[in-house]
Specification:
The protein has 16 helices and 6 strands. By secondary structure, it is mainly α. It has a two-stranded antiparallel sheet. Helix 5 crosses helix 6. The longest helix is centred in the middle third of the chain and has 23 residues, at 164-186.
C-alpha cells in the first residue's frame, strides 16, 4: 500500500503529492488501520485534466463493510462529481433518474404509487405525484412539523438578497434556533439574560459584516466553550444541603445512564417539574435503562479501566525529556490503579469513589514521585492523599500520563506525574445534596 503513495499509474513522470494516492476508477483500495482506530478522515477529487476527464465521474466511500459496495455501480446517497459540460452527465442522468423513481424525494416531491393501472397499455405500474396539500393529508404529524420547518427555512435561503423586512425575519429565526441550541447544550431553559446574551453575540457578529452562517457559527462556538456546557453545573449559592432541581436531576439521570444529554421526553418531565415525583422518576429511569443509548454508559465506565490496561504498552512519554519516568515508575503507576479498583470491588465501595476518593495506593517510589511523604518500602498500601490533590482516577499518574503528550502535559492533565506537583489543579468542589435527590 505504501508503494502507491506519490505515484500516478497512468504517468510515472507526473508529480504527485507524497501523501496522495492516484487511482483509476473503478477500484477498491484496502487500507490497514490500527485496532484501536476510532476515526478516519480522507479527501478526494476528480482529475479534470486527464485524457478521460470528459466522460469520467467519481464517487468515494470509506467503509468497513465486507465485501465493499460494487465500485462499477452508482452508490446511492453518495456525492457524485463530474466535469462540467462533459459527456458523463448523460449516463449519470439516466442512472439517477432510475433511482429517483425507486427512492422518491421526501415531502414536496414525494411520489406515491397509489394504484395499478389495468386500463392503459396493459398491466403496468403507475406513479402519481401528490400536491403539497394532498401530501400533508397522508404524512404523520411529526413529518408535518418537519415539513413546515423545511418550508420556513426555504423561504429565507431561497433569496440570496432579501429585503430589509425579510432580513430582519431571517435574523430573528437564526437567533431563535441558536437559543434552542443553547437550551439543549446548557441543559436548562435560558434565563432572560442568557437569551439576551445569545442575541447580542449574534448581532455583534453581524455588525462586523459576517454573513448569517458565520455569525451563527461564532455564537455556537461561544456556547460550546461556556462552563455551562463543559461542566454539569448545579446551584450551590445556598449553604448546606440543597435538593436538586428538576433540570439538575434530569441531567444527572441522563448522563449516568446514557452518558449524554437528556432527550425530549426527559426534558419535558423536567420542564413541568413532574420528574421530582417518585413515580415519574421511576418511570423515566426504567425508560432510559431500556433505551439503546444505555450502552454508551457502559463504554464510559469501561474507559478508565481500558486506559489502565493499555498504560504499560502505550504510555507515550519522552524518556529523554523526563528521565525520571522509568520503567519501574511506569509499572508502579499501573499497579496503583489495579490496587485501587481491586479495593473498590472487594470492599464494595460506592461507585462515586472512582472520582471522589481521598485516598490511593502507593509504595515508596511512587509516593516520592508524587511528593507524598512518610511512605517507605516496595509494598503498596492505602494512603490518604487529599491534601496533595490526588485520590480517585483523576489523580492517578497512569491515566493522566496516558492522556498527555510525549513532550508536555495536556491542559486537562496538569497533575500528571511528568509535571511538578505544584502544577496540580485546585481542589475539586463537591456539592452536598439530600438523600432523596441522589437517585441519579
Amino acid at each position: 500500500m505504501l508503494a502507491k503513495f506519490g505515484k500516478d499509474p497512468r504517468n510515472p513522470e507526473a508529480k504527485v503529492a507524497p501523501d496522495a494516492i492516484v487511482v483509476q476508477a473503478p477500484a477498491v483500495i484496502p487500507l490497514p488501520l490500527p485496532e484501536d482506530a476510532a476515526d478516519f478522515t480522507g479527501g478526494g477529487k476528480l482529475d479534470i485534466e486527464g485524457p478521460d476527464a470528459d466522460a469520467a465521474s467519481v464517487q468515494w466511500l470509506a467503509t468497513t463493510q465486507n465485501p465493499p459496495p460494487d465500485p462499477t455501480k452508482v452508490i446511492p446517497g453518495r456525492l457524485t462529481v463530474w466535469k462540467l459540460h462533459g459527456s458523463a452527465i448523460g449516463r449519470l442522468g439516466y442512472e439517477f433518474g432510475v433511482m429517483k423513481v425507486a427512492f422518491p424525494d421526501e415531502y414536496a416531491r414525494r411520489l406515491e404509487e397509489v394504484a395499478r393501472n389495468y386500463l392503459r397499455n396493459g398491466k403496468s405500474a403507475s406513479v402519481y405525484y401528490l400536491s403539497d396539500e394532498q401530501m400533508l393529508t397522508v404524512i404523520s404529524p411529526e413529518e408535518k412539523v418537519h415539513w413546515e420547518k423545511m418550508m420556513t427555512d426555504w423561504k429565507f435561503v431561497r433569496n440570496s438578497q432579501p429585503n430589509a423586512q425579510q432580513g430582519k425575519e431571517w435574523d430573528a429565526a437564526v437567533k431563535q434556533d441558536l437559543a434552542d441550541f443553547a437550551t439543549r447544550a446548557w441543559r436548562h431553559p435560558l434565563s432572560s439574560d442568557e437569551s439576551a446574551q445569545i442575541s447580542a453575540l449574534y448581532d455583534a457578529a453581524r455588525a462586523r459584516e459576517l454573513d448569517r452562517e458565520s455569525a451563527g457559527r461564532e455564537v455556537i462556538v461561544r456556547v460550546l466553550v461556556s462552563p455551562q456546557f463543559l461542566f454539569k453545573l448545579e446551584d450551590a449559592s445556598q449553604p448546606g444541603v440543597q435538593p436538586l432541581t428538576a433540570w439538575e436531576l434530569a441531567t444527572r439521570l441522563s448522563y449516568f445512564i446514557w452518558a449524554s444529554e437528556p432527550d425530549d421526553a426527559l426534558r419535558a418531565a423536567a420542564a413541568d417539574g413532574s420528574l421530582l415525583k417518585p413515580e415519574i422518576l421511576d418511570r423515566e429511569t426504567k425508560r432510559l435503562l431500556r433505551g439503546p443509548a444505555r450502552q454508551r454508559a457502559g463504554r464510559g465506565i469501561r474507559r478508565p479501566m481500558a486506559e489502565v490496561h493499555s498504560f504499560e504498552t502505550k504510555a507515550n512519554i519522552d524518556g529523554n525529556k523526563f528521565p525520571e519516568f522509568t520503567p519501574e515508575l511506569k509499572h508502579d503507576m499501573y499497579r496503583e490503579a489495579v490496587e485501587f479498583f481491586t479495593h473498590l470491588i472487594r470492599e464494595d465501595r460506592p461507585l462515586r469513589e472512582i472520582l471522589t476518593a481521598d485516598y490511593t495506593f502507593l509504595n515508596e517510589r511512587l509516593a516520592k514521585f508524587y511528593g507524598v511523604p512518610d511512605v517507605t518500602g516496595e509494598e503498596f498500601r492505602r494512603v490518604n492523599v487529599a491534601q496533595y490533590q490526588r485520590g480517585g482516577v483523576l489523580g492517578m499518574g497512569c491515566l493522566l500520563a496516558r492522556n498527555s503528550y510525549p513532550h508536555r502535559t495536556s491542559p486537562c492533565c496538569a497533575a500528571t506525574g511528568c509535571s511538578p506537583p505544584s502544577s496540580a489543579p485546585p481542589p475539586r468542589r463537591r456539592r452536598t445534596t439530600s438523600p432523596s435527590s441522589t437517585t441519579a
